[in-house]
Specification:
The structure holds 2 protein chains of 2 kinds. By secondary structure, chain A is mainly α. Helix content of chain A is 75%, strand content 0%. By secondary structure, chain B is mainly α. Chain B contains 14 helices and no strands. The chains are: A mainly alpha, B mainly alpha.
């Protein structure tokens, strides 16, 4: 009877999933395949929807993107900007985590600090980028004035013409926006560790540093890896800050892959075909990375449980057999 | 005897405490520095929004507000380009619409995962996890072409409807619902003659309220801050969202109106700052909650 009831209601499982599936097919899957298809066509021109598939040289767009100097620059820039922001970000987040989860000396006003650290993350990135562009204005920007008053500069410097400074500011903005988020995530991870582990370490006479490196860090290893991969995926999509800060400049120093794609597709020649090919190359890289996330996110308890059930079934069968024999 | 013993322990504690106190002072100083760093750019923005352009040209750095905020806003609106109210309204329509759809349909999909036993259930859940990280930004050209064909560019609906399929929200809702929903409630409602859809709307949604609130905040903010999609899809300034309005401040006619640019920037994030200050406790808790998995 139980089985029958489950059967009766099963169809609602399908019915209630229909909206999600339909929306996904229309708004996500179709654009994926359509973009992939466009990667093999000569589609260009604003608002144009007519295209020819490049039958004779199907991979022309992909080859020209991969051989393009700006694309290479954009790809390397993206990796540099991501890497140089991730390292200080995770170190700062770990430091804050160590401070805020120390069982021997509790830090007060943690709630206030967390709210402050997270603030830059919630503010519109477009506004943040424009604001920093404004602060770094030449010759009468806030930063220039500050450096003049502090006697670091003798006269205003157009810092946004120096490649490394501009890139450095983008890296700073990214770090500044994300370390709070990462810290909050890691703190909640550490708070989820069983307190008995820490008690045992204390009983064994471990000091603060030993506890942090030998107990805390290994316990949040998966979480750290997860943070790394999701941050990388986010970093590969970086657009708002470099676009509105200096529009990829100076001299392509802050050109990211997303900005490259945007410029190809929606500016100048409106080369949709080539931009689609570039999109698909990045898409493929991110699919590989998200496969890694998928692997990390697997419900481990459930996997364990299933294993256990199988083991018990086997045991049970064996016992039955032995009993019969 | 007991007295001297007590003294000894107190002394011992104090010795260890000197290092501890120094460490604590360092931590508080650094944390306070970071907190100041978080608001300093926004404070500079706000202060300069209240100063006139000549004042800013004299010294761009000031920590005390002046009195020219409304003059700056007047200059801003006189150029007839940057329209914060239009941006606010469009952003609000998109964010509210997208949030309602995302929250409702994600809950529904999660409910189907938790309550019913159907053949493809586990496969479908694996599928949701697999598509969670796929970036919509990189398939936007295909999406745009689709909108061209349907003559739906410049239509805010195309920014709202895709929210129905929000895989990571389904994932979160499922994690929340699984322990929170006693299946007996569903069974007894069925015995009372309630239909499945009614049970979901009248019984399950109220149970999910805390999760819905958290996810709604994040969905709303994400949608509000989105720049790439509207930038590609929308070309008519009447339909510009707030982040797109921000990009208009780059235009040449504002180039020398320093005070007005700062005022414009302030207007674009004022609603966010207010919402954040009101809900910061829940938002920070939500960030922590969404990450516990993993």
């Amino acid at each position: 009877m139980k089985k029958k009831r489950a059967y009766d209601y099963a169809r609602y499982g399908y019915i209630f999933s229909i909206p999600f599936v339909l929306a996904w097919l229309i708004f996500q899957l179709y654009p994926i395949f359509y973009t992939l298809l466009l990667g093999f066509t000569d589609l260009k021109g604003a608002g144009n929807t007519d295209f020819n598939i490049l039958w004779s040289t199907p991979f022309k767009n992909f080859i020209s993107v991969l051989g393009n100097k700006s694309f290479k620059t954009a790809f390397i820039n993206t990796l540099i900007i991501w890497g140089c922001n991730f390292l200080p970000q995770i170190l700062l987040a770990l430091l804050i985590t160590a401070w805020f989860t120390n069982r021997r000396s509790t830090i007060k006003a943690q709630g206030f600090y967390k709210v402050m650290f997270y603030l830059p993350n919630i503010i519109t990135q477009a506004t943040v980028a424009m604001l920093f562009a404004q602060l770094f204005l030449y010759p009468k920007g806030v930063v220039n004035d500050l450096f003049l008053q502090l006697k670091i500069f003798d006269k205003p410097v157009d810092m946004m013409r120096i490649k490394s400074v501009t890139r450095g500011v983008v890296i700073f903005i990214q770090t500044w926006m994300w370390y709070g988020y990462t810290a909050i995530v890691l703190i909640s991870g550490v708070l989820g560790i069983s307190p008995e582990l820490f008690e045992a370490a204390e009983v064994d006479g471990a000091n603060q540093w030993q506890t942090f490196f030998k107990v805390t860090l290994p316990s949040i290893k998966t979480m750290l890896l997860f943070t790394l991969v999701t941050s990388l995926i986010g970093g590969l999509n970086m657009f708002d800050i470099p676009k509105l800060f200096q529009n990829g400049g100076p001299d392509n120093a802050t050109l990211t892959t997303s900005l490259y794609i945007y410029n190809k597709a929606f500016q100048g020649g409106y080369l949709y075909g080539e931009a689609s090919a570039a999109s698909m190359i990045m898409f493929f890289i991110i699919v590989l990375l998200s496969a890694l996330v998928f692997y990390l996110l697997r419900d481990k308890d459930e996997v364990e449980l299933r294993k256990l059930v199988k083991l018990q079934e086997k045991e049970y069968k064996r016992k039955m057999k032995m009993g019969k024999i | 005897m007991s007295n001297s013993n007590l003294q000894l322990t107190v002394e011992g504690r104090e010795k260890g405490n000197v290092g501890n106190i120094i460490q604590k002072v360092i931590i508080y100083v650094l944390c306070t520095f970071l907190a100041i760093l978080s608001i300093l750019p926004f404070w500079m923005m706000f202060v300069n929004a209240t100063r006139s352009t000549p004042q800013i040209q004299q010294t761009a750095v000031s920590f005390l507000p002046s009195t020219h905020l409304f003059d700056n806003i007047k200059i801003l609106s006189s150029k007839n380009m940057f329209k914060p109210l239009v941006g606010f309204l469009n952003s609000f329509i998109v964010s509210a619409g997208a949030t309602v759809l995302a929250v409702y349909f994600s809950s529904l999909t999660a409910y189907a995962q938790v309550v019913y036993e159907w053949k493809l259930r586990n496969a479908f859940f694996s599928f949701i996890m697999a598509i969670m990280m796929l970036p919509g930004q990189l398939t936007l050209i295909g999406f745009l072409q689709m909108c061209y064909k349907l003559h739906l560019t410049n239509n805010l609906l195309m920014l709202i409807l895709p929210a129905i399929a929000a895989p990571s929200m389904v994932f979160f809702m499922r994690q929340y619902l699984q322990p929170a929903l006693p299946i007996e409630i569903v069974h007894s409602a069925r015995i009372d003659g309630a239909r499945e859809f009614y049970i979901f709307n009248k019984i399950v949604i109220p149970i999910m309220k805390p999760a819905i609130a958290t996810q709604a905040i994040f969905s709303f903010v994400a949608s509000w801050n989105n720049l790439f999609t509207p930038m590609v899809l929308i070309s008519s300034t009447k339909r510009y969202t707030m982040p797109m309005m921000v990009s208009l401040l780059r235009a040449d006619i504002y180039k020398t109106e320093y005070g007005s640019i700062y005022a414009g920037l302030t207007l674009t994030i004022l609603p966010l700052i207010i919402v954040y200050l009101l809900l910061s406790k829940y938002i920070v808790a939500g960030v922590a909650l969404g990450s516990v998995k993993g």
